[in-house]
Design goal:
Layout lengths: L7 H8 L4 H5 L2 E9 L2 E4 L1 H15 L2 E10 L2 E9 L7 E10 L2 E8 L1
Parallel strand pairs: 1-6
Antiparallel strand pairs: 1-2, 3-4, 4-5, 5-6
């Protein structure tokens, strides 16, 4: 089985899944993240959300596919954790800018 090759900021995002400080280094200063029906703007808001989500759900995401779609890197990942319906497949739509994540939308 071939390993999935992800662009560096996306690989760093998944590697830092439970480390909000490291996650913060993956995003631009004014990045926007949409997840679970909410929008988080800026690194501090994203780090707070990710820390709370990590503590609450202990979710682990394993990317298995990537494709480019209208200037966005669409990554699909198996996600399991302490939430109803686990495991599920999530779609992560990353827009990259200057080697960092400028926006991220996570959907089912």
């Amino acid at each position: 089985m071939n390993a999935l090759t992800l662009p560096e900021p996306i690989a760093a995002y998944f590697a830092a899944e439970h480390d909000p400080e490291a996650l913060g280094q993956c995003f631009t200063a004014q990045a926007v993240m949409k997840d679970d029906g909410h929008t988080y703007t800026g690194i501090d808001a994203i780090k707070v959300f990710m820390a709370e989500a990590s503590a609450k759900y202990a979710a682990t995401s394993v990317p298995f596919a990537i494709e480019r779609e209208d200037g966005v890197q669409l990554v699909r990942a198996n996600c399991s954790g302490n939430f109803p319906g686990s495991p599920i497949v999530l779609s992560y739509r990353f827009r990259l800018e200057s080697g960092l994540i400028a926006s991220l939308e996570v959907t089912v």
